[in-house]
């Protein structure tokens, strides 16, 4: 592999520098060093070592933090110029629209909701580090954390335009019209959306055997049913049925900071208020708000799918109150005089019902995703078992929805029992 001096940045779309370089996981530190030195020659020339930390929270990409340990600087000052290097997993372009990801990140960075993008390279991107604590699934269940997540998610949904992550359907996408709400020759849903993404994933599944073809046909039928049942779920605001969804709010994508000097009293216990930021926008897609929220709740269970950990009704209610207040605050423009007429309680009740309806969809979504990953990923993770667990969540939900579980005398699943708890 040639030296970093051969990899001079050039301009690319969105004004982002393009470094012609392919990151190698076989020699990750060497690749990371050559990338940061191509990004900023001072990292090579200035005093102090370059230190790398590999993060392993994700199961799609590899993420490396690079820091320049300049003498005399504090850890916070060093972190301010730290660089994150995210190398895409092999074959993941079949799952992720990389140009849409960059447009999403660029918009979020421009409004202060994402770290600045620094450059892209052949198989990944580089961006600034966000100081704070990366959450674990256990952290997501803490009231001070999930209230912070709810407030930030309400800001996303209430203020971000979906125009940055939509496109005009092409002739090649004509088969996806059934998921774009085609009415009188026009689409009533944005393109892409939650349903078109899943359709593309199903279409990308292996189909070499009769068993695979039958499985794909069954998944396709289920998706049509879901799209027809839930695809026109109304938003809190009339006409805003689809919002700018993160669509991957697992614990590793939530960064929590503690606000200095800001305290709230809870009985005799005082806790610092926290703020949350979201990272990794690969799956950002126009979606119903209820899907994005239900998807986050599913992640309380972690990769181990500990279904005893999904939120109970009272936890979901507390989350929704923080979310709705933030959503309404951020969705009201300076010219909007209707704030005093907003019924936040009604919003919360409506959203609670919608999230209940969507609670099984994330299992379907990530189940299909895992079936694809099982065939393409080189990361050491049991995607096949994960697919079974996630699709199992969907079938358990559907068994409650259509009454088949009761009719057949089957026991309610752990996840469904937990979801029904007060």
UniProtKB/TrEMBL annotation:
TM regions (residue ranges): none
Domain of life: Eukaryota
Gene Ontology BP term (one): phosphatidylethanolamine biosynthetic process
Enzyme Commission numbers on file: 2.7.1.82
Listed GO MF terms: ethanolamine kinase activity
Enzyme class at the top of the EC tree: transferase
InterPro entries per record: Kinase-like_dom_sf
Membership in a protein family: Belongs to the choline/ethanolamine kinase family.
GO cellular component: cytoplasm
Annotated protein name in UniProt: ethanolamine kinase
Metabolic or biological pathway: Phospholipid metabolism; phosphatidylethanolamine biosynthesis; phosphatidylethanolamine from ethanolamine: step 1/3
């Amino acid at each position: 592999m040639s030296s970093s001096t051969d990899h001079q940045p050039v301009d690319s779309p969105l004004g982002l520098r393009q470094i012609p370089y392919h990151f190698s996981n076989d020699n990750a530190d060497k690749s990371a060093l050559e990338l940061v030195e191509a990004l900023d020659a001072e990292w090579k020339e200035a005093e102090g070592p370059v230190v790398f930390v590999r993060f392993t929270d994700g199961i799609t990409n590899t993420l490396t933090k690079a820091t320049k340990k300049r003498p005399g600087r504090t850890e916070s000052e060093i972190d301010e110029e730290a660089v994150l290097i995210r190398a895409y997993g092999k074959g993941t372009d079949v799952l992720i629209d990389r140009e849409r990801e960059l447009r999403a990140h660029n918009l979020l960075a421009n409004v202060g909701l994402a770290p600045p993008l620094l450059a892209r390279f052949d198989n990944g991107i580089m961006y600034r580090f966000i100081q704070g604590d990366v959450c674990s699934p256990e952290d997501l269940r803490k009231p001070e954390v999930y209230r912070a997540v709810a407030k930030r998610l309400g800001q996303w949904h209430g203020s971000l335009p979906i125009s940055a992550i939509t496109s005009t359907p092409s002739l090649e996408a004509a088969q996806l019209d059934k998921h774009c709400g085609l009415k009188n020759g026009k689409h009533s849903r944005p393109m892409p959306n939650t349903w078109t993404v899943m359709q593309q994933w199903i279409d990308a599944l292996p189909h070499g055997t009769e068993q695979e073809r039958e499985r794909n046909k069954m998944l396709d039928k289920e998706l049509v049913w879901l799209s027809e049942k839930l695809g026109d779920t109304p938003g809190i605001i009339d006409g805003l049925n689809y919002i700018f969804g993160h669509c991957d709010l697992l614990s590793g994508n939530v960064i929590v900071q503690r606000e200095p000097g800001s305290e709230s009293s809870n009985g005799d216990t005082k806790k610092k208020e926290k703020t949350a930021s979201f990272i990794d926008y690969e799956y950002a897609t126009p979606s119903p708000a209820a899907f994005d929220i239900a998807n986050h709740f599913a992640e309380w269970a972690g990769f181990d799918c500990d279904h005893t950990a999904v939120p109970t009704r009272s936890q979901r209610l507390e989350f929704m109150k923080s979310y709705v207040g933030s959503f309404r605050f951020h969705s009201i423009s300076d010219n909007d005089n209707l704030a005093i007429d907003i019924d936040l309680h009604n919003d919360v009740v409506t959203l609670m019902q919608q999230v209940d309806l969507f609670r099984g969809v994330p299992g379907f979504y990530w189940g299909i995703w895992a079936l694809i990953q099982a065939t393409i990923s080189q990361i050491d993770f049991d995607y096949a078992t994960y697919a079974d667990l996630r699709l199992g969540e969907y079938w358990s939900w559907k068994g409650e929805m259509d009454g088949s579980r009761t009719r057949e005398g089957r026991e309610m699943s752990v996840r469904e029992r937990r979801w029904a708890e007060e």
